[in-house]
Amino acid sequence: MVVVAQIGQTMDGRIATVTGQSKYVNGPDGLTHLHQLRALVDAIVIGVGTALADNPQLTVRLVHGKSPARVVIDPRGRLPHQSLVWQDDGIRKIWVVADGVNVDPLPQVELISLPAIDGRMDPMQILQILSAVGLRRILVEGGAETVSRFMSAGCLDRLHLIVAPIVLGSGRPSFNLIPIEHMDQAQRLPVKTHLIGNEIIFDCELQPQRSIVKPG
Ligand SMILES: NC(=O)c1ccc[n+]([C@@H]2O[C@H](COP(=O)([O-])OP(=O)(O)OC[C@H]3O[C@@H](n4cnc5c(N)ncnc54)[C@H](OP(=O)(O)O)[C@@H]3O)[C@@H](O)[C@H]2O)c1
Q: pTM above the 0.85 mark?
């Protein structure tokens, strides 16, 4: 199994404005890169916060390639039927909710329920179940909370952080991780950088931090 996360952020580390608007932090080159990543995976995973804020389609449109399955992590089953991720376009769609939550999925949507502790599902269990249903190349596309939970759980192989030449000065931060007090506790990631147009991709290697062996 391979799990890549991507975040498009400003130079001051923001993924959206204070109102949650993020279309678009990245310009055409960053977006094309994102669509290339989508075309390479079996499934895109997003948190319900992104599905509600952006109402994304999560399809491959800017490059040639097949659109992957769409997976929404939504422990409380909040995502409405009319959301674009649920559109009946022949692409596989999976709704991941917490055990015991009463939802009524559309016929084209597969439902997976998992145990949750204080509303939180274990990212490793999410990956295990996705692997079991045949989805082994995964792109975690946001938002900050979802990427941070996968990262904290040691579930990411790579992170593509795409920095756009924008300063917001306020807004949603890219990560939400356990606070640290000293710089020597900071995560320092092995990284390769690439310039695409006027944006920089930090291709970060996270495999050494992986705490648990992911499903095969
Ligand atoms: N620039 C970019 O690259 C980019 C990409 C994507 C999104 N965005 C922006 O990011 C913002 C949304 O990000 P966000 O951090 O607020 O939300 P998010 O990560 O999209 O969704 C977070 C929510 O998803 C659920 N969730 C995710 N992982 C879970 C887990 N392991 N267990 C249980 N529940 C889990 C929880 O739902 P509950 O709240 O129901 O518990 C959680 O609060 C929007 O403004 C969007 O525009 C930017």
A: yes
Ligand 1: distance of its center to the CA of 176 in Å? 11
**Within a domain: residue 172?**
yes
- Sorted by sequence, the CB contacts under 8 Å of residue 57 that are 6+ apart come out as 84, 85, 87
The separation between the first and the last C-alpha atoms of the chain, rounded to the nearest angstrom, is 5
Range of the domain at 78: 2-209
- Nearest CA to 73 among 121, 117, 28? 121
Residue 8 maps to a domain: yes
Q: What confidence category does residue 207 fall into, taking pLDDT thresholds of 50, 70 and 90?
A: confident
Query: Is the CB–ligand 1 distance for residue 20 below 6 Å?
Result: yes
Number of domains in the chain: 1
- CA angle (61, 66, 67) in 5-degree steps: 65
In a domain, 67, yes or no: yes
